[in-house]
TrEMBL record:
PROSITE patterns: HTH_LUXR_2, RESPONSE_REGULATORY. Residues 3-121 form the Response regulatory domain. CDD domains: LuxR_C_like, REC_NarL-like. The modification 4-aspartylphosphate is found at residue 54. It comes from Streptomyces siamensis. The keyword Transcription applies. This is Response regulator transcription factor. PANTHER family: TRANSCRIPTIONAL REGULATORY PROTEIN NARL-RELATED, TWO-COMPONENT RESPONSE REGULATOR. It holds the Pfam family Response_reg. SMART domains: HTH_LUXR, REC. InterPro entries: CheY-like_superfamily, NreC/VraR/RcsB-like_REC, Sig_transdc_resp-reg_C-effctor, Sig_transdc_resp-reg_receiver, Tscrpt_reg_LuxR_C, WalR-like. Coiled coil: none annotated.
Length: 221
């Protein structure tokens, strides 16, 4: 059973999401929060698998609450998905850097929301390819001079290659076709790379790929 915490200051939004999620045989809403401070308290209390976190909330905004989750080693298994009204919300970029596993627009289709909740628990890519590439492009535009790539020393040559492909926004299937391997093999390489680098998910791998200099701005094809 996938346990979800809903954090949004609009009760109608929470009610709609709760009705949809609770109707699924493999998902349950473990709790709700109306502001970021309450969300952080309930994450620590309930230890959900996924938090659907609104970016704009009173007392403590979604970004600060997300950092509170992702900076806590005891909460390393909790995945945060940011909720936003606009697909290109100005805070989306910072949300990913804060450790969020991805983001969804609030008016997303029900099937997409359910797929996203299940996917993020598995550590798979949550963002659509188009959104991922726009996010990467934004990251590339803002990225600073890369630090020394000492953190990549444990990776094999193939794992570095796979990480670079994740960094430019390719899915497991696209990586498999590029490297002429099976999708399962591609997923295994991605998973091993994440474990070695201590990355929470693919979104963080993208950030690490740029920060380490493995991928440079202008590589989007």
């Amino acid at each position: 059973m996938i346990r979800v915490l809903l954090a949004d200051d609009q009760s109608l939004v929470r009610a709609g999401f709760k009705a949809l999620l609770d109707a699924q045989p493999d998902i349950e809403v473990a709790g709700e929060a109306a502001d970021g401070a309450e969300a952080l308290r309930k994450v620590r209390e309930l230890r959900p698998d996924v938090v659907l976190m609104d970016i704009r909330m009173p007392l403590l905004d979604g970004l600060a609450a997300t950092r509170g989750v992702t900076d806590d080693a005891d909460l390393k298994d909790v995945k945060v998905v940011m909720l936003t009204t606009f697909e290109l919300d100005e805070y989306v970029f910072e949300a990913i850097r804060s450790g969020a596993s991805g983001f969804l627009v609030k008016d997303t289709e029900p099937e997409e929301l359910l797929r996203a909740v299940r996917a993020v628990v598995e550590g798979d890519a949550l963002l659509s390819p188009g959104v991922t590439r726009r996010l990467i492009s934004e990251f590339a535009a803002r990225s600073k001079e890369p630090a020394a790539a000492e953190s990549l020393a444990e990776l094999t040559e193939r794992e570095r290659e796979v990480m670079a492909l994740v960094g430019i926004g390719l899915s497991n299937d696209e990586i498999a076709r590029r490297l002429v391997v099976s999708p399962l093999t591609a997923k295994t390489h991605v998973s091993r790379t994440m474990v070695k680098l201590g990355a929470r998910d693919r979104a963080q791998l993208v950030v690490l790929a740029y920060e380490s200099g493995l991928v440079r701005p202008g590589w989007l094809g």
